[in-house]
What does this fold into?
Amino acid sequence: MGELQLAPVDRLIRKAGAERVSDKAVEVLANILEDLAKQITEAAVQYARHAKRKTITAEDIKLAAKALLG
It folds into this structure.
């Protein structure tokens, strides 16, 4: 498993309306979320570098997410 804890991911699924959630479903979603977060972060780093900054800003994250997710 990666960086994300499974319990919060389980809670997210349940908040979306699921009554029962398999352990594998939680693990798969956690992996997908980690991959997506990595992609967004890598893009945000590029935005900051392009702006000649070392600090990643909230705006960098927003722009990267919008670029990747539409």
Observations:
- The helical segments are 6-15, 23-50, 58-69.
- The CA atoms of residues 40 and 68 lie 7 Å apart.
- The mean pLDDT is 96.
- The chain has one domain: 6-69.
